[in-house]
Write a structure and sequence with these properties.
1 helix, OB fold (Dihydrolipoamide Acetyltransferase, E2P), 6-stranded antiparallel sheet, mainly beta, 5-stranded mixed barrel
Length: about 240
């Protein structure tokens, strides 16, 4: 009978050694003067119903050829916040173009002077979060004197451009925007999907605009209040 390879599961004790023969735990008799250590690969042969260890196949126990891989560790999750100040705040009217007298963010029209698009541009800083998932986004806003003193609700728009174009900005999705009385300051929650679009490079800023030209609202821009429209984005990776 041809010899087989088996693996000792313990060191030899006296004339026998415990081994796995064809995957079966077996007591194997050890040839005279043969030393067997645990995990040694031994040459065995069955003679008259008894397994005998005739020798060792290697000089030392070989490394496992197909070790059981340890389970993958849980993926790490990283979280953080990114604070982004606008690179510019400005207001646009179709008849007159971009206002140059101030940097405030207007919605609506006063008299016959044209309907405003108040625009807030965030530049490229949000792109540093590419690959992250936005979990929260908020902006700081303050209302300045203009229009009705009582709280007036603006219409917030997602804007394509990250920096000011020569003509009218491109507006996208809309939602109910900040509602403040004159002189009030507040923090407004921006839809996570909008901030995600800015992170992913599909949008670049925010705007306030109502096609009806009402209500007429003036929110502070960077030149009037330094925290104006500062965007704080909470994010996670993993």
């Amino acid at each position: 009978m041809t010899g087989l390879l088996a693996t000792a599961t313990a060191a030899a004790s006296g004339a026998t050694v415990a081994a796995l023969v064809n995957g079966t735990p077996t007591v194997v008799r050890v040839a005279r003067d043969l030393t067997v250590a645990s995990d040694d690969v031994i040459i065995v042969q069955k003679i008259r119903g008894q397994w005998f260890a005739l020798g060792r196949a290697y000089s030392a126990a070989p490394a496992a050829t197909n070790p059981t891989a340890p389970p993958d560790p849980k993926p790490s999750i990283t979280t953080g916040k990114l604070v982004v100040s606008p690179v510019e705040t400005r207001s646009y009217r179709a008849t007159y173009g971009w206002r140059t007298d101030n940097t405030d963010v207007y919605q609506g029209q006063y008299g016959g002077w044209g309907n405003h698009i108040g625009a807030v541009f965030y530049g490229s800083k949000l792109r540093t979060l590419t690959g992250a998932t936005v979990t929260d986004a908020r902006v700081q806003v303050r209302r300045l004197t203009a229009g009705t003193y009582a709280a007036q609700t603006t219409t917030l728009r997602l804007m394509e451009e990250a920096t000011r174009p020569s003509g009218s900005p491109t507006l996208g999705a809309s939602t109910s925007g900040p509602s403040l009385a004159v002189g009030a300051t507040g923090t407004f929650t921006v839809p996570d999907s909008w901030a995600q679009a800015m992170v992913d490079g599909d949008a670049g800023g925010l705007a306030i605009y109502d096609g009806d030209g009402s209500p007429y609202v003036r929110l502070a821009g960077r030149g009037s209040w330094s925290p104006a429209w500062t965007l704080t984005v909470s994010w996670r990776r993993g």
